[in-house]
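Cont'd.
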Amino acid sequence: MASALLTPDLLRRLEQFQLLARRRSKSSARGERRSKARGQSVEFADYRNYVPGDDLRYLDWNLYGRLDRLFLKLYEEERELSVTIFLDASESMNFGQPRKFDFARQVAAAVGYVALCGFDRVSVLPFPDHPEEAAARGGLRAVRGRGSSLQYFANLERLTAHGPAGFNESIRRRALEARRVGVALILSDFLDPAGYEAGLTALVGRGFQVVAVQVLSPEEAAPTTYGDLRLIDAESGAAQEVTFGRFRLATYQRTVENFCQRLLEHCQKRGVSFFRVISDAPLEQLLLKQLRQSEVWK
Amino acid sequence: MSFLAPGAFIFAAALPVVVVFYLLKRKRVVKLVSSTLLWQKFLAETQASAPFQRLRHNWLLILQLLMLALAIFALARPYFARPVKGGRLLVAVLDASASMQSADESPSRFEKSRAEVLQLINGLADRDQMVLLLAGAHTEVKQSPTGEKATLRRAVQACAVTDSPTYLTEALKLAETLTRDRPFSEIHLFSDGAASDLKDFEGKDLPLVYHRSGQRGNNAGIVGLDVRSNPENASQRAVFVSVANYSTNPVPTELELRFDGQLLETKAMTLPPTNTAAEVFIVAQPHDGVLSVRTTAKDDLAADDQASVVSLLPRPVRVLLVSRGNRFLEKAVRAAPNVELSLATDLTEAKPSADLVVLDDVAPTVWPAVNVLAIHCFNTNWFTYIGKAATPAIVDWKNTHPLMRFVTFDNVQIVESLAVKPPTWGLTLVDATETPLVVAGELTRQRIVWVGFDTLQSTWPLRISFPIFVANAVDWLNPASASSSQLMVKAGSAFHLGIVEAVTNADVTLPDGNVKRLAVDPVAREVVFGETTKQGVYQLVVGTNKTVFCVNLLDATESDTRPRPELKFGKYGQVAASSTRQANLELWRWIAAAALAMLLCEWWYYHRRTA
C-alpha cells in the first residue's frame, strides 16, 4: 500500500497507532470505540432485571444459582469514532518550500490512515469551497475501513489550494453541518485577517475534540528577502510596503512568536491541542513524537 | 549687492544633484507573500515600541549625510596657511579712554565702537588682514595682523574700557608704522576724539577713517583737586576743587567732601555752561587720610564725578642753607611757611639732618644726597658745562610748573650766568638765549632745582617773585610734599614707591577690593605698579610698610565729552568723521543656515513618510 503522500515505511509505523478519544463515541454506527450505548461486545457494562422476551443467552446463571433471581448481563456497544479533518486549502497554503498545503495533506493522510486502520469514520472537509473539486471532495466524506485508504489518498492528492480561506465562516458552517461530532483536526496556517477565534470557538462549542496544527513556511518564520519591499497578499491582493533588513529579523521573529503564542493561549483556554510546525520540518517529528506525546494517539 | 567670493557659485553645480535625488524613486521589490498579516503586526509593534529605528543601509541617506558634512565643513571655513599677495591691511584703533564710558550712546560709546569694529571685521574680504590696537593711557596691540575673523572677534571682545585719558598719538604712530609702504591699507579710528595730544602728531597723509562716537557733551566733572595747608590757619587743610561743565546749560550740583569715607561737608553750586568753577573746602584734619570729592550732577560720564587725594598732615620743613651770606635768600627761606632753618658755610656729609639743602654760590665738600636747591653752583653729574653767559636775556619761563606758580621774570636782569646744556632729567623753567637759567627735575630719586646765576648778581631778589619762588621751591623740594604728590597718579600712569627693605613680593588692594600680588626683585629700590586703569583708592603693602595712593582721571580733555566732528593733527592735518561707510556684509552664513534647515526638514519629511 504505497502513496505519494506517505512512504510505505511511515504507513507501516502508523498502523500501530490508535486515535485516543477523550469522550465516548456518540456515533450510531458500530465500530470499535466504546460508547454509552449497550449492545454486544466483550466489555461488561451492567446488570438489569430479566423481562420476558430477553435473549436468554445473556442471563447470568451463576447469579441465578446464588440469588434465585434472573439477571441479564449488559455489555457496552462499540461504536465507530468520527474523525473530521478541516483542511485549509486557501491560496496562502500554496507558499513555502515545501508547500504548506503539501505538508498539511500529508498530516491529513496520516491521521486519516490511522483512523481508517482503527475502523473510524474519516471525513476531510477542505475550505474554502472549490466546486470544481466536488468529486474529490465527495470521495473524502465519511470514508471508513482500511480498504478505502488508497482511494482516500488519491482523493487527497487531487485537492488544490486557492482562493481566500474565510477561516471563521468556513469552520463554523462545517461544524454546524457535521452530523457526528468526534475528533476534529484543523490543518491551517491561521493567517486570516479576520482571525481564527470564532471558528475555533464554534468547533469546541459543537462538542468536537479539537486538535489544531498550525503549518507555517520557513519564509514566514524567518524571511530571507531584505530591502525595500512591496508585499502583495496572495489571498486579498492587498499591498504592504516595508523596509526590512537582517537587523530587524529578530523583531519580526518576535512578532511571529507573539502571534503563535496568542493562538496557543486561545487553544489552551478551550481545551484544544495545539501544534506548530514548519513545512520543511520532518513529518515524523510531528506524527511519531509530538502527537504521540500529546496523546492524540497512542 | 556684490559678492566677496563669487567663485562660490561653482557650488551651484550641486543643485542638479539634489534635483536628481528627488527624481530618484524609491525602488521597491514586489513580492507575493502568503499573507501580510504578520507584516502588519510587525510594523505596528515596531512603530509602537520605539520612536527610533536602526539605521538601514541606504545610499540616499549616505549622500545626504555627506552633503550635510560638507556643508558643516564649509561653515567651519577651513583654510590653508600660505602666503598670498594682495589684500588690504586694516588697522582698527579702538579708543578705551574714560570718555568712551559716556552713556549718550546706548549702552556706551565704547560698546557702540566695539560693535562697529565687529561690523568692520564681518566685512573683511578673504585676503584682508586686520590689526587691532587698544588706545588708552598706553597703546596695546590686542591682535597682530590676521585675516581670521574669529580671532579678531575674540580680541575685540577681550577689550575693556579704562578710566585713563587717551593718548592717541602713540596709537596712530604705531598704525602709521604698520601701514607704511602698504598700498592697500586703512586706519580706522573708533573714538570720540577726546584726546589732547594730537597737536604733536603730523599725520597729513594718513589713510585714516574716523568713526566718531558720541551724540552730545552733557557732562560735568572734576578736573582739578589739590589739598594744602590753610594759609590763614596752618592747623587746617584747604581742599581746592575745580569742576568743569561742558554742557551748554547751567548745571546745579552738590559737591560732597569725605574724609576716609565720612561725609565732612556738602556745598551746593551751579556750574556755568561750558565753564569751570572752583570751590575751596576748609576742613580740620585729625590724621593722615584720604579726602574724596564727589559731584552729584546728572550727566553722561560717571568716571569724572569723583576724585580722591591722600592728605598727609604738614610737618615742619628742616632747611639747611649753605651760604657765604645772602640775606635776601635767608629772609626768603624764613618767610616760607613752616620752615626750620639752619645755616652753614659748607656741607661735609651727604645726608645732613635736614629735609632739603640750599646751596648758595658754594661748592660743598660733599654734595648732598637729599633734595637740593642749588644756586650758581653745579655738580658735574648734572650738567655738561659750556662756560659762562654774560647778561643772558630771559626769553621764556614756564608758569605752569608748580615751582613757577605766581612767579614772573619781568624786569629781572642778570649780570652773568653759568652756561650749561639742557639736561635730560630736568625741565627748563626759565630760558635764556644761550643757556637755561632755572632747571628743575629729579635725578636718581633726588629732586633738584638749579638756578644758574648768582641772585646777588641780579635784580631778582628785589622783585616779589623771588620769595614766592623760594617758597614754591621749599614746598616742591620738601620730601613730605613730594611723596604726597607721588601718592596721586593719573589713571593709566605707573605708581612708583621707593623701598628700603628687601622684599620679594608686594600686595596691592585694588579699589574693587581684589588683591593683586606683585613679584619684586629683592635688590630693587622701588616698586612699580602699572595697572592703574581704574580710578579709586589703592593700598600697597610692601613688607611692613602700608602706602595708600589714589588714582584719578582729572583730565579736562577727557571730561569734555562734546563730540568732535573732526580731528586736527599738528598744524594742518585734519580728518572729518565718517559716520557711515560701505561695509561688505556677508550673507553666506544665513544662506548656508537656511540650506541646512531645509535639508533637515526634507530629512524629517522623508522619514515621516517612509517610517
